[in-house]
Design a protein that fits this description.
Order of helices and strands: EEEEHEHEHEEEHHHHHHHEHHEH
Low-confidence stretches: none
Helix content: 40-55%
Number of strands: 11
Radius of gyration: 20 Å
Strand content: 15-25%
Number of helices: 13
Largest sheet: 6 strands, mixed
Distance between the termini: 18 Å
Length: 286
């Protein structure tokens, strides 16, 4: 029995594989070692994982946001080893999880576009190269936080039609000063900004909103994907809520840039389950 985990800053999904059987998803709070100490992670495990056994697990494969250095990975691993009785605990980045989910054991360009964005060239085993995502201030092109930032900026600077501005303030019942306070003085401004991507989706029939999506995805392709020489001949695949919900626009942008669309998924979990079931079968054959 193995446990596969996909974690973001706000939500974590836990799934058990027993042979080729997969259990139901159990969700907990997000586990990001940039914001949580080992004891705090243990607290989440103890209070929110009643549906997951703590013993009898052969291996845990944890893929998470913020798990991009030995120090941060150790924080998560130590917490998992304290709570679970498992023979093996692996902690890797959310980008590695996305690559394994999207590409399995094949070569490809794997991308995440959710609240933030990221990408890599994956050779079927490892991430070979990665264009730095840089976060929602300097990068994260196409991600929900950047879309929200561009939407709010356009609304406050009156760059959209009057009807868009009116609809925005009718929808959110928020003032300009409250927006600025949330962005500049309150914690997690990326989450605050990311929520406004829903407005774009709800009003996607409006040309201004379509142009916002198209220009943002075009930025992501040009500033990230096209920097991988392999993107010219390998499939480019995506996971994440923004990529999935706006996949029609995304596939059009890929085509215009001469790129081959791979797969586009809402979440990496189903692909990760296939990857680890296959990996388990290969181990048995050997």
């Amino acid at each position: 029995m193995i446990l596969v985990v996909d974690s973001g800053s706000t939500k974590t999904e836990w799934r058990i594989i027993n042979g080729e059987e997969t259990g139901i998803s159990v969700f907990s709070s997000g586990i990001n070692p940039y914001f949580l100490r080992e004891d705090e992670i243990c607290g989440i495990l103890e209070s929110e994982l009643s549906g997951i056994p703590s013993r009898g697990i052969g291996a845990i494969y944890f893929y998470g946001t913020g798990c991009n250095s030995e120090t941060k990975n150790k924080t998560v691993k130590d917490a998992l080893e304290r709570y679970f009785s498992a023979d093996e605990v692996f902690v890797g980045s959310d980008l590695l999880g996305a690559a394994r989910s999207l590409c399995q054991s094949g070569r490809g360009i794997a991308c995440i576009i959710g609240t933030g964005s990221n990408s890599c060239f994956y050779d079927g085993r490892n991430i070979v190269s990665n264009v730095a995502p840089l976060g929602y201030i300097l990068g994260d092109e196409g991600g929900g936080a950047v879309l929200g930032r561009k939407l709010i900026s356009g609304v406050l600077k009156k760059q959209f039609s009057a009807s868009v501005n009116e609809k925005f303030f009718e929808t959110y019942k928020i003032t300009a000063s409250e927006i600025l306070e949330n962005v500049y003085t309150k914690p997690f401004p990326n989450r605050f900004l990311g929520q406004f991507a829903r407005f774009i989706s709800t009003n996607i029939q409006i040309p201004d909103m379509q142009e916002l999506i198209i220009s943002s995805f075009d930025e992501f392709i040009k500033r990230n994907v096209l920097q991988y020489p392999e993107s010219k001949h390998l499939p480019v695949s995506f996971t994440g809520s923004i990529a999935y919900n706006f996949r029609t626009f995304l596939t059009d942008i890929l085509k215009k840039n001469g790129l081959n669309t791979g797969i586009i998924t809402l979440s990496p979990m189903e692909g990760l389950m296939r990857y680890h079931i296959s990996a388990g079968a290969e181990k048995k054959i050997r």
